[in-house]
C-alpha cells in the first residue's frame, strides 16, 4: 500500500507534492551578507565565524514523529565558545569525534513556527561520527520546541510547520 506523501496547505489551500520532514537555516540569525567579504568572517555549510569573535556550528534538532519511525528535523545554528569551537574544528575530520563530551551553546536560529522565539535557547551540541551533522539537544524547558523534542509531534503538526515555513506572512508564529 502506498501513501500520498503530499499535503493540502492550510494557508493557501494548494496541494503540495510532498510533506517536508526537514528544514535548514542557511546562516545564524546574526549573519549579515555584508560579512561574506570580510577577512575575519566565514560561512560554510557547517561552520560560521563572525568578526573572529563569534563562533557557530550547524546541527540538527531532531523530533520524533508520533506513530511512525520518522524523524522531523531542523538544521539550526548553535553558538559555541571560542574554546569549544576550536576543539570541534580540530576534531571535525577525526574518527571517534562522537565520543567527545557535548559542547554547551545557544540556539542562534529563529524558527518562526514557534512562540516565543527560539533564539538563545540553551543547548548541548553532540558530535556524531564523521559525515553526520551534530545533534542539538535542547535544555528540557517548557519552550514548545524543547517539549516537542522530548515528546514528539504528530503528522498534523508537521503539516502546520510546513504551512508556517512555506507562508511566513506576518511572522508565522503559532
Percent of residues in helices comes to 10-25%
Number of strands: 10
Q: What structural class is derived from the secondary structure elements?
A: alpha+beta
Strand content bin: 25-35%
Q: Mean pLDDT, rounded to whole units? A: 91
Quaternary structure of the protein? single chain
**What would you call the shape?**
globular
For the CA atoms, what is the radius of gyration?
17 Å
Query: What is the helix/strand order?
Result: EEEEEEEHEEEHH
* Main pleated-sheet profile: 8 strands, mixed
Report the total helices: 3
For the termini, the CA-CA separation is 34 Å
**Which stretches are poorly predicted, pLDDT < 50 over at least 5 residues?**
none
Organism: Streptomyces avidinii
InterPro entries: DUF2199 (IPR018697)
Pfam families: DUF2199
Protein name: DUF2199 domain-containing protein
Structure, explained:
This protein is of the alpha+beta class and 174 residues long. The chain has three helices and ten strands. Strands 3, 4, 5, 6, 7, 8, 9 and 10 form an eight-stranded mixed sheet that branches. The protein has helices at 82-90, 144-151, 155-166; strands spanning 7-8, 15-16, 22-24, 42-43, 47-50, 54-64, 71-80, 103-107, 122-126, 135-138. The two termini are 34 Å apart. The longest helix has 12 residues, at 155-166. The protein is 17% helix and 28% strand.
